[in-house]
Amino acid sequence: MWTDKQRGIRVSQEELLCKNACGYYGNPAWQGFCSKCWRERERARAAGAQRQDTRPSNDGTPLTFSKFEEKKNTEKGRRINTMRRLFWGSPSPPKRQESSESYANVLKAYQSLEPGDFTGFLKLLRSPSSQRLQSRCTAFLNTMEAYHDLPVQKQSDLVQDFYQSFAEYFSSFPEAQVTQIMEHVEKLIMTRLHKWVFCHDSCDDEQKDLTLQRRIRSLNWVTPQMLSVPFPEKKTSVTADPFLPAITAIIEMDAKRAPQDKLTCVSKCSQHVFEALSSSNSEPANADDFLSGLIYVVLKANPPRLHSNMQYVIRFGLPHSLMAGESGYYFTNLSCAVAFIEKLDGPALNLSPDEFEGYMLRQRAPAAANKRRQVARDTQHLLEELQGRQEKLDQGMDALNVELNKWVQAVNTQLDEATSQFSLVQKEITAQVELSQASSSSSPDESLQGDDKDQTVLVLTDQHAGPEDTDC
Fold this sequence. Notes:
Blueprint: H1 13-16, H2 35-53, H3 64-88, H4 100-111, H5 118-126, H6 131-146, H7 152-168, H8 175-197, H9 205-218, H10 244-251, H11 259-280, H12 287-301, H13 306-316, H14 319-323, H15 325-342, H16 353-360, H17 367-464, H18 466-471
């Protein structure tokens, strides 16, 4: 009988560490071991198999197969010595031949290198004092390109051996400075070798990429609630998905060439996951929430060539980047997320086998998906209602424009009439002003003529009164 007990996704810090208890992070690709313990384990297994093959039989005569293996190992050793001659000019790595003064100058120049200054590293490597280091890098690159048909695991071993031998040159440096320099060396080497070793023909990475992509595509119905991912319940727009930056960062990993740059994308993705979880929950995110969120991001992103990119980092990345530190922790969690997706079943999602099978066959839909469909239908109805309102508003605006045009025409007509009337009034006023001016100019002449008449009458009167006055 199926129970409702939630199983969820649980992972402890001890489960992420190496099975050999060395203190470094393990990886599912190495069966839970770190890269160092895995290589030592494989070498010990190969040495044990070689001793077993060369063991004599009961009658005291060695087996024919053991002779074949001995010849094969001899040929292998001859090939290794040949490649070492190509790298260093001798069957074994040469001893340091620089004088102590020149060697000290080289070390002093690299000590002043700023963190993350890849351009400065290239300038130092091209300087005359670093000619020997540059020659080693050039010889290694040319040889790897010439032998690009070697199995990818052999190429991985050669690259890791080159890292180790190059780091020995700076053995007197602090570990942090050696790590910084080796990151530049890794970027220089693997940027050139990417086209030869990534998704190599000698492995089935391409087929596994297709299988993983189909698997992730078939799980696109998984919801954050099924993975127990703290997701904001408030309504947000599609563009406000808190995990969108993490999805973008994990997709960008395929565009990078150097393993360190791919790890940087994984670190950015993981940091965005923590930020999204922090925004969804008031409490800090724990390791279980982080792994659940990372699984959700991988399912939603379905990154291109995810398996090949992870194998590329495992094979050709610096060991310390995967064994310890922030990048190692994030990459280990990404490996756990991919392993979880590959083995995902109903109980991991708190579903019965029948429910899980129904979802996989597209016969069922999650409740959250139904809720999203209902929200989509409601939104569609709302959009239709808003569209009707918009049409009514457009009609009202058209009617208002017609009325406004009529009113403008009426105002213009009234304005024209007022203008014509004003012109007539102005003409009348002008005529009256001219008439008044003309009348005012003629009035003084008439007054002068009246005065003259009065004076004449007075003179005549005086003349008639003159003799009377004399008689008196």
